[in-house]
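As the work plan foresaw, our protein records have gained a structure token line. A representative record is set out beneath this paragraph:
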Amino acid sequence: MTLVAQAVFAAGVFIYYRFQPDPLRGTDFVGLFRRLVLGPGILASICVALHLLERFVQYQLPSSDRTFFAVIYTINSGLFILFLASTTYTWRSLVLFRSSGRLRREWELFEILLGGTLLLRLLGWELPTYLMLLVIGGLAIFGVYLSGNQKWVAYLNRRQKWEVVFMQLAILLCMTIFVAYFVRIQYDPKLIAPEPQHAFLLLTVFFAAFYAVMGLFVTFFNLPTAGVFEQKREEILSLQRLTQLIQRGQTEEDVYSMLFDATVQTVEADAAWLDIEVSDEAYKGQRYHITEEQCTAIRGLLADYNLGHIEYLNNDLPNSSGFRSLGLPFGSLIVMPLRSTKRQYGALYMLKNQPQGFDRENLGILQTFTSQTILSIENLQLVAASIQNERVQEELKIASTVQESLIPKDLPIDNWFEISSHAMAAKEVGGDFYDFLHLPGQRLAILIGDVSGKGITAAFHMAQMKGIFHALMQENPLARNEREKFPVPSKFMAMANKALVHCLEKSSFITASLYIIDYENRGFVFARAGHCHTLYYHSIKEEVSYFRTTGLGLGIIRHDAYEKHIKNQFYDYNPGDVMVIYTDGIVEARGQIRRNTARIDCNRCWSVRITLRPMKLRI
């Protein structure tokens, strides 16, 4: 009956732990071992305390009843079963860490075989000796096979591996305390435990102890390689940090600093420096445990051998004649250029005190780091260029809006003339413009022009020219006669040229044509300041011709001699004549014939057609 109760208790404990949540949380292996040590440690302490109590009672009461010792033994057996169940299913979490489905099925088979064998032994069902040895031996081999799954060890760093080694030793110590107790108690004359109990406990502890020993050896022998794995992990983290810098919008200097710190740490350099070929004088590079004079000496020697901008590895500087003459305390050198397909960014220099300090793996690491750095730098430059382009586009959009607002929307209306205009929006902001102004005495002033260059500056000068036009074409209250109240076109051009001297850059100029049409007297006067020739249609002759007049653009000559280069031209028109004035966008346009239809593609086109009655004049 006692054996059945113990069998039910053991089965219940193991089943309870079997269906508990996985004690492993992520990859917190140290925490898992810490919890395991605290559990078995407490149980082992209780076992020792009970054993000491038993010894004390036996010493004080030599003739005490055996029942007390049986109770102590039963309690310790229960504690040992709890300890084994906790340990076994902790090992299960480690065995099945990132395992395949096949390994999980093998573990389930092992659980069934182990549980069945232990319960049979506990209930005292004896098999033939050879068959029992065969079963136990096969089960032991199966346990050894499963104990080889120690993938979790690779996820520990050096410090964690040392912690796990000491905790595994503590677990083995707890097992030793339990086993020593049960081995000793079986020879006690006051309490002879039944043989099946001892077999059950010893067979159960075999797998738990063997996996602990295997884990201890695997962890211990992996200690020498822990530094290599940590170095590899640090390399990956450094690459991740370099990549994240661009995502956080850091500067080029931050990326270079990150590269320098990461490479010095990864290859364990004793000295290093970074040369950067940049236009920004604020950042020249970095140095680590090396003076500027030493850098200059090495840099000069490499330049003499034409090695300054290529990959270079020298692991025997003391025996290299050129470096030996420098008398520097270094034994190994790596030079890693920072370059892309477009340009050279600089070079990275790594030094170690001892010869043979670097290997090809270090060279490969530096190649990876510098390639990622150049990629990050070029990405930063692309982002900066994109932001600048967006800013320019926004400014051009504003300038285009301003330019459009300066072009007259309402054309002059009168019974004497007919005006139509065409203005095609520019793909880029330019300085093309035209404007109208009514003058007393049935006269109309028309100004058309083009500012050199493109962009916001051209649009700004266009606005200035429009302002000058409206300012100069106002009535002069001090005029001595009617003709002097408003400037003639040549006078206007001279005055505008003088005003623009203080506005235009030396490399800028403006072409313009000013027409003053007196449609009551059927004539007009105009002056051309380097602008496109006027196209004129003679209705009586039915001929088309240009007004080919001389004239120099505004701002080309910036003194009083400019007046000599501007002339007025007078012309009387007939009814039905048409005049077309335009900017050079019309001339530069490329025509394409598609399906017998003419199409003009213009970057910028401004034209005005004026029809006057009884003369038709189109501009």
Summary: The longest strand covers residues 344-352. Confidence is low (pLDDT under 50) at residues 590-606, 612-619.
